[in-house]
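Hi U.,

Before I forget, here's the chain from the pilot set. I'm dumping it here mostly so it's searchable later in email.
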Amino acid sequence: MKREALLALAAGFRESNPKLAGHGFVTIYKGMVTGWKRMLNRPGTEVPGAYAVGADASIFRACGGDEEHGARTFLPATDNCLNADEARAECSQACSGCSEHELNDCGASIQANGLDNASSR
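Structure:
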């Protein structure tokens, strides 16, 4: 999906749910909002190819794994990834196993491991 479309879907959800508007991540799969997460610490709850849009407009993609067991990690969605064919199951760069997107011992990406963008607690 295009960055603008993901941001618009997330903005619509946040407008309808003001208590969740300032923090967390709106989850999106196949062009539909599927939910909200406070943190991106359990990628297995999303299928590969799902997106998570942060309150700060950051976008992550669920990568690796399979539909039955869920994704292995959340990785920052690059412009190349966002512009790739939607039918493509894997993120073009992020899921290729390059050293920039190496997984830690728990199977989570180093960049998104336990990411929490809550503004205040």
